[in-house]
Amino acid sequence: MLCGGAASAHAADSSFSPAQRAEIVEIVRNALKTDPTILSDAISSLQTQAAARKASSALETVRHNKAQYGESTTDVVLGNKNGKLEVVEFYDPRCQYCRKVLGDVDHLIGSEPDLRLVEKVIPVLGPNSVIDAEAIMAAGLQGKYVPFQKALMTDSSAPSLDRIRRLAQNVGLDADRLLKDMKSPAVTTALSKNLELAKAIDLEGTPTFIIGDREIIPGAASESDLKAALDRLRKAR
Question: Domain Thioredoxin spans what residues (predicted)?
Answer without folding.
Answer: 48-235
